[in-house]
Amino acid sequence: MASPQENTAPPPAMGSHLLERLNDAQREAVEAVDGPVLVLAGAGTGKTRVLTVRLANILATRRAAPGQILSVPFTNKAAREMSERVAGLIGRPTEGMWLGTFHAIGARILRRHAELVGLRSNFTIIDTDDQLRLMKQIIEANQIDEKRWPGRALTIIISRWKDKGWLPDQVPTSEVDDFAHGKSVDLYREYQQRLSELNAADFGDLLLLCLTLFLKHPDVLADYHRRFQYILVDEYQDTNVSQYLWLRLLAQGSNNICCVGDDDQSIYGWRGAEVGNILRFETDFPGAKVVRLERNYRSTAHILGAASGLIAHNESRLGKTLWTEAPDDELGEPVKIQGVWDEAEEARTVGESIEDLQRHDNSLDQMAILVRAGYQTRAFEERLITIGVPYRVIGGLRFYERQEIRDACAYFRLIRQGDDDLAFQRIVNKPKRGLGDKSLQTLYAIARGRGQSLLSASEEVITTDELPPARRTALREFVENIARWRAEASQLSPSELAEIVLDESGYTAMWMADKSVQAPGRLENLKELVRATAEFESLDDFMNHVSLVMDIETDSTDPMANIMTLHGAKGLE
Asked: N or C: which end of the chain has fewer CB within 10 A?
């Protein structure tokens, strides 16, 4: 691989009109070009401006050609915006720059050297559905009970290992759990072999195989050392171990690496992010320059004071203090803390605040309700519906539109009305009972032929040999459960019945066994659903309420209040 020719012409001065728009700390971050640099960018401190002007500065001063710069933003959207902004600053396209997410750059490098890691250059990057399908095939081939040891759980385990930079032979013994009686590493090895045979890679491989490539082929790594004279990384606090190791290897060449991030904004540890990467920067890169962007352009002094007071309690942080130049008469509204008795009172209080703001001509579009977790949206949604305030849930579905809530409500619908065939079809195999599409087609044909509902037909089928014995047994258990719950419904409160149904059906256990990052949230949503049923005298009352809530439609062009989780709000300021 030929390395781009370095430009030895003397660097001209950067356009003063660009630097004049920067404050002192921002200018320091832009002009600290050589050597390792860590930019601690607090929220609202102009990080995006620093990133784009820094890149434009390197190009405009001819320190490097576009092809000698590696820039790694966190999302594809950020990559596109950065390219457009830099091009606007320097007055020409940024063609040739290595600008993209970790996965995008990893895939680009792998395609150039695919044969060195056992692939061909046209390898396929499989999505999560294909990954799960392949995993299930491997589990079945090894005669492992997929109901007890689901493929989804194994994909999560393997993805976690890949995020830590571990090939099958590198997984520490202490990290091997009891999945399939300790066979997870062997299954991982077989999975990787199968991917190679298919000329395919999953997303975790895009970094893991790059690490393998660089470590086993120093000449290839040396080529990229010569190529990348400057490396720029955004959201460094959200990098995982594999990404960290990849960057460390690439930065060994020029040592000109600039990482931008904020340890105070590290909120993705649950999906593999390692805040220690940013905390160790000065140890990893001796002599590193640390620039703190602390002047906030977004928030009032009252908000900054409250935020700083909270984050100061973090035991491990690099430390910075956000401030604003707003005059004393522009401190803004004081941050209000209000205690409430329960979630119902909280939702009612927030609803009243929104109505009061509307009376003072404030648009709903300017109002947001931020919650810690997705399950907490339910109380606010129902309150806003009650008082007639249109709303949208950003970054997620409305509470009663979520998969697990629809599934649970399908159980309730079938208990309430035995001829609800749509509810029957939705939950007869949730959790899996061996009653898949083929069994359902058989039942449907029988029911149609007899003019019966699916549940009524099932009650007869379990006494005949129209289904294979194993499926007949599973269907009998399902039918008997529905019958028992229907009989108990009149003696139990809605919340008691809901708990029994979710427990005895195995639906809650299904999500407890699921190792995906979504599973804990789904379990919290189910708990919230049970709490919601407690507000009604009967199951009929609750289901009527759900039907009315689901029937509410709003014109998407109308102003709406916004509901989102704190995670979902990040980056949307």
From this structure: C
Task: Give start and end residues of each alpha helix (H) in 217-330.
Answer: 218-227, 241-251, 276-279, 281-284, 301-311
Q: How many residues does the chain have?
A: 573
Q: Where are the domains of the chain?
A: 16-108+209-293, 124-198, 343-390+557-569, 407-538
CA 210 to chain centroid: 23
Kindly indicate the confidence band of residue 1, based on its pLDDT and cuts at 50, 70 and 90: very low
Count of Cβ atoms closer than 10 Å to residue 368 Cβ? 13
Residues with Cβ < 8 Å from 307, sequence gap 6 or more?
43, 299, 322
Q: What is the DSSP pairing of strand 561-565 with strand 391-393?
A: parallel
Which amino acid, one-letter code, is at 527?
Answer: K
* Sign, Cα dihedral of 556, 557, 562, 566: positive
Whether residue 225 contacts residue 254, with contact meaning beta carbons closer than 8 Å, is answered with: yes
Closest CA to 430 of 447, 414, 449: 414
> Which amino acid is residue 117, in one-letter code?
V
What global pTM score does this model have? 0.75
Q: State the pLDDT confidence band at 165, using cuts at 50, 70 and 90.
A: very high
Nearest to 1 by CA among 112, 123, 130, 155: 112
At residue 142, the pLDDT reads 92
Decide which of 3.40.50.300, 1.10.260.40, 3.90.45.10, 3.90.1150.200 is the CATH code for 16-108+209-293. 3.40.50.300
| C-alpha to C-alpha distance for 142 and 549, rounded to whole angstroms | 47
| CA nearest to 214, candidates 116, 72, 115 | 116
Is residue 427 within 8 Å of 407, Cβ to Cβ? yes
